[in-house]
Design a protein that fits this description.
It is a single chain. The chain has 122 residues and is mostly helical. It folds into 2 domains: 61 residues; 60 residues, no CATH class. The structure holds zinc ion (ZN). The site of zinc ion has 7 residues, from loops.
Length: 122
């Protein structure tokens, strides 16, 4: 795959920052330490459906075909042949892991802890 040019890399960076900024805002506005209950309820009612849709869309895209291979993952070299990931693929495994244990995201991407909890550091 050819390297992406700097304009496309910048666009990717902006998209990622936009999504992470949204998550930071929802997390902050639903934090029991920082926000009153009425605001938490209001934000939860509007944003939880969006978050569910995002995760549901990811799970729907990363479903198994009739061979048990993931339809959402790109083809890649597996044991010397081009093929697709077996299902559950790494995307589904990570989503499942973070659903069961949300704090495990900070083991996988430690820099996100400081981003998500800037005032909770000790
Ligand atoms: Zn997949």
């Amino acid at each position: 795959m050819p390297p992406i040019n700097s304009a496309l890399a910048h666009a990717h960076h902006l998209l990622q920052q936009d999504m992470l900024g949204y998550l930071d805002t929802v997390e902050l506005l639903t934090s029991e330490n920082d926000t009153d209950d009425d605001t938490v309820l209001t934000i939860a009612r509007t944003e939880v459906p969006r978050l569910i849709a995002a995760l549901r869309g990811t799970v729907a895209a990363h479903r198994a075909d009739h061979h048990g291979l993931c339809l959402g993952c790109p083809t890649t070299w597996i044991e010397g042949r081009l093929g697709r990931e077996p299902w559950p693929c790494p995307t589904i495994e990570r989503a499942q892991k973070f659903l069961k244990n949300p704090d495990s995201i900070y083991d996988a991407v430690p820099h996100e802890r400081e981003r998500a909890q800037p005032y909770a550091r000790v």
